[in-house]
Amino acid sequence: LIAVTKSITRQDEKGRDDRHIEGVLDILDSSSDRERKRLRLLEDSFDPGTFRWLDQLGVGSGWLCLDVGAGGGSVARWLAHRVGPSGHVVATDLRIDQLAGHSIPNLEVRVYNIVTDSIETAQYDLIHLRFLLHNLADHRATLLPKIIGALRPGG
Predict the structure, then answer these.
(1) What is the pTM of this model?
(2) CA–CA gap between residue 37 and residue 12 (Å, rounded)
């Protein structure tokens, strides 16, 4: 469970900032129906454009792909279908509740933290991230070289 709270800073009697937590606004459980609906709305809104873009890139048979922050797994499933039995897709997220239970033989699911965990070097033909880097702005200087380093030459 992740508790999302609202924080308010007020001045105490001596003029110092005094930070208060103003109650829990929401609780997100990655296995909940609410989280599934949230991810589904994002997929419904952004998958068509993502799939067109990936199609234009020429994603095809035999590719090795990494989907970082895979969420509900719609892109990972699309990629697994596209790369076929001779290809492989690794779908990662901090929580894999929404990715578990699939029966796609060339789709591997891993718990993975892009900030702290290592990544294979020069391994992937394609690495997909969506709605991730903007949440990790403080880490961009280290993440981008790490991600680019995981691409095969020409990937």
Answers:
(1) 0.74
(2) 42
